[in-house]
Write a structure and sequence with these properties.
Number of strands: 11
Shape: globular
Helix content: 10-25%
Number of domains: 2
Distance between the termini: 31 Å
Structural class: alpha+beta
Number of helices: 6
Order of helices and strands: HEEHEEEEEEEHHHHEE
Largest sheet: 5 strands, mixed
Bound molecules: zinc ion
Strand content: 15-25%
């Protein structure tokens, strides 16, 4: 899944590099993947997209609800939850891909599924999405609409026995906030990922809210995380504090060892000193 900062970066780069290019060939499902999802028959993608110009791109909060990059090709809307790569004319293409657009100038754009990925292609309705596409739109944490009052509403609507990770990064409660960006958000807020909401006091909750906004903003402004690659295959400029890249490093605050463990369908990383469990459990 693409997370919020990277989908901002991808859509900004698509808006700079791909606008006005006309699709010559669209190839979907060339290398079938068990967890690649399309709308309808992938072999119909060529008919849907060929001859169409790329007209704009949004982060996944434009028409859908985060964790996607949206690309509009005249009257078609692509909703992509995979990484998206640009290939200049003559540049080597990926050995395996699940969606490949060839443009009239012989440049390409490819999507390759990692664990799973959607590559939806819809006729662009008045509001972007066809009626049958159900999407609960909710405020994007990088916009002013995601304010402390809204965060409180989310908090009050959540079972207080859930953990901080479950609250922030599951159920698509917050669009585009997944397990990747979660780690630094909680480290910055000094909250252990397994702490139950009911053990978190008002000051800590406020700190969590500010960390959601500020951490995602920093990741977006610095071109995405250094664990992810952008449209041109370059790693992002945001240096992750907690990720597979940094596990062996000391905690930047206390100098102690960082911890990685599996929890709720993905690894969590934390500093047991700076993010104590306190009275939880
Ligand atoms: Zn520490």
């Amino acid at each position: 899944m693409i997370e919020l900062p990277e989908t901002y970066v991808l859509s900004e780069q698509i808006n700079q590099a791909l606008i006005g290019k006309t699709v010559r060939n669209a190839t979907a499902n060339a290398h079938p993947h068990a967890f690649a999802w399309y709308t309808g028959d992938p072999s119909a993608y060529h008919a849907k997209l060929s001859g169409k110009k790329v007209t704009s791109s949004n982060p996944g909060t434009g028409y859908t609800c985060g964790g996607n990059t949206e690309i509009i090709c005249e009257d078609m809307l692509l909703v992509l939850s995979t990484p998206v790569k640009y290939h200049a004319p003559g540049e080597k293409l990926p050995a395996k891909h699940q969606l490949l657009l060839e443009f009239e100038d012989f440049s390409h754009m490819s999507c390759t599924v990692q664990m799973w990925g959607c590559m939806f292609c819809f006729p662009f309705a008045e509001n972007g999405l066809p009626d049958e596409f159900v999407c609960n739109k909710s405020p994007d944490p990088l916009t002013a609409a995601f304010d402390e009052a809204y965060f409180d509403t989310l908090w009050r609507g959540t079972k207080q026995s859930l953990s901080a990770k479950a609250f922030l990064a599951t159920e698509q409660r917050i669009p585009g906030l997944g397990n990747g960006v979660l780690q630094d958000i909680l480290w910055n807020a000094k909250i252990h990922p397994k702490r139950k909401l009911q053990t978190i006091n008002d000051a800590e909750k406020e700190s969590m809210f500010h960390s959601v906004k500020a951490t995602l903003f920093a990741m977006r402004m610095q071109g995405g995380r250094d664990t992810e690659r952008d449209l041109f295959g370059c790693k992002g400029g945001y240096k992750t504090i907690l990720s597979a890249n940094t596990l062996k490093n000391p905690c930047p605050t206390c100098g102690g060892s960082l911890v990685r463990e599996a929890y709720l369908g993905g690894n969590i990383y934390y500093c047991p000193v700076c993010q104590p469990m306190r009275g939880a459990n």
